[in-house]
Amino acid sequence: MIKKRLLFFLIIVIFSLLFIFLDSRGALDYPKSAINYLIAPISKPLWSTTGKISRLFSLILNFKNVNSENEALKNQNQKLLAENAYFKNYIKEKDILDKARDIQTQNNFNWQIAGIIGMDSQNWNDFIILDVGYKNGISVGMPVITENKQLVGKVVEVDNDFSKAITIFNPLLKVGVKTQDSQAFGILNGDRTNNLIMDFVAKEKLLNNGETVLTSAKDGVFPEGIVVGIIKDFQVKPENLFQTVNVKNNLDIYNIDKVLILADFKL
Amino acid sequence: MRFFLLFVPLFLFFIAQISIFPNILPAWLIPDILLVALIIFAFYQLEYKNLITLAFLSGSIVDIYSGIPFGVITLSFIFTIFCIDLLVNNFFNKADFLVISLGVIAGSILYMGFYFGFLKTYELLNVSLRLNSGYRIILETILLFIFSNAIATAILYLPFKKLISFVNKFQ
């Protein structure tokens, strides 16, 4: 009895070894494929269905976690946004400081960097509020420029920590200017748009459209050579003593975060 | 006839094992239902030739779907069932739940022994992948295998008992 059992067992083991040998020679590929063809039509839909059910259950079980995970991600996102804004601001400030240092080197200006923290609530681009004041050595009359050496205006009011500057778009601000190539002098004032008016320009001066207009320092307020704009057009009327020049200014006051206040300079 | 009546449920269980259990159970808890079924069949004194042939066929099918060299599982199944059959014939004369559970635990240990033994043989013969797992991982695998098979036995004991009773009617 035991011998018979052992014999049958050995036969099956030999069969198995034969199968292993045949498999190593690739002879079992067809039977294997046949079994696959037999199993696949049943196992595939079963796998898909149970997978869907399993995902549904795990979704239900994890719903609480999803909510808290979402909250955590939102918080992390806010934190990263704040960090990103900080670094962007830092880079921007560094860029401004680099340019300001160039201005200092070239023109022998001493400046104080200031952030624009507001604008006059009623006349949007007439006045700007700056985050520096007496404590920072700011006083009334100091010119305000951008890091690109473009004229913004001048300081008109100073508190301990804040100051207010009138911009070149305000008709009340008069700036002594000159054209770069034709050396025509005049007085510039704003009209609350980006078009500035350069008045009292001598009639005999031959101007060119596109010519750069700079501060002339003749007003005793602004140093020489600060960019104001370019000549858009000009009118020469026989009945007038002077010619009037329209100056186009590209300063976008809304897109400026930092300005330089010239604390010490030579006229 | 009896052979096919037993082979068909085994085949269906195998399909469940490869397509349903991986989706609903963690990997370490998936039992080897074919092994559990064959051990239970052995305890219910299934005809020896049928039992060994079933072990051979079941092992071969599992081998096709496994990632290890063909033959390791087939041989492990055959050797395990042979040993279990010897145990049943020499030491057990009843087949209640406790005895079968002990038999499944013993069978799982034997199976794992043969499994790693044959794998090692393949490695020595340089036929297959190297068995790089540390002893701790192998031990963990064996314990989890025993645990999951014991749970499967608890669940499948009665259905298999009924199946055997049903199949015996065709004798």
Walkthrough of the structure:
The complex is a heterodimer of chains A (267) and B (171). By secondary structure, chain A is of the alpha+beta class. Chain A contains three helices and twelve strands. A six-stranded antiparallel β-barrel of chain A has the order 1-2-5-4-3-12. In chain A, strands 6-7-8-11-10-9 form a six-stranded antiparallel β-barrel. Chain A is elongated. With 171 residues, chain B is mainly α. Helices cover 77% and strands 0% of the residues of chain B. Chain B has seven helices and no strands.
Q: Low-confidence parts of chain A, pLDDT < 50 over ≥5 residues?
A: none
> Number of DSSP helices of chain A?
3
The largest sheet of chain A, given as strand count, sense and whether it forms a barrel, is: 6 strands, antiparallel, barrel
Class by alpha and beta content of chain A:
alpha+beta
Q: What value does the Rg of chain B take, in angstroms?
A: 16 Å
Termini separation of chain B: 9 Å
Percent of residues in beta strands of chain A? 25-35%
Q: What gap, in angstroms, lies between the N and C termini of chain A?
A: 123 Å
What's the overall average pLDDT of chain A, rounded?
A: 83
Residue share in helix of chain A: 25-40%
**Molecular shape of chain A:** elongated
The strands making up the biggest β-sheet of chain A line up spatially as 1-2-5-4-3-12
